[in-house]
């Protein structure tokens, strides 16, 4: 086998292996839920049911979930324990979003940002 062919085969195998790792570490449910929660935060800010400060805190919480997800995916697999931890963080964020959107405090009510 020529050197060029060996390099080509090695490159192809590394691309296929990287794709397999990416699939093994995929978290589509987490990603979809993150999208929905971020949309709820944006909707709350647009409607005035969230103050600027509440929006900032909720977005920071979403950022922490993103970071935890990246750390879980870093080794190529997301274990059951890691996935459960992500779901726990999302559940907590979900409750926080609901509480903040329905706390009768909003941008229009004169609340300080």
Succession of helices and strands: HHHH
Q: How many structurally independent domains?
A: 1
Overall average residue pLDDT: 85
Specify the number of helices: 4
Oligomerization status of the protein chains: single chain
Q: Which residues form runs of ≥5 with pLDDT under 50?
A: none
Quantity of strands, as a count: 0
Rg on CA atoms, Å: 21 Å
The span between the termini is 68 Å
Shape: elongated
Largest sheet: none
Structural class: mainly alpha
* Strand-residue proportion: under 5%
Give the fraction of residues assigned to helices: over 70%
Protein architecture, described:
The model has no long low-confidence stretch (mean pLDDT 85). The protein contains four helices and no strands. The chain has one domain (27-108). Helix 2 (28-47) runs parallel beside helix 4. The protein is elongated, with a radius of gyration of 21 Å. By secondary structure, the protein is mainly alpha-helical. The longest helix has 22 residues, at 3-24.
Helix/strand layout:
Blueprint: H1 3-24, H2 28-47, H3 52-73, H4 80-101
Which keywords apply here?
single chain, 113 residues
Explain briefly what this protein structure is:
The protein is built from 4 helices and no strands.
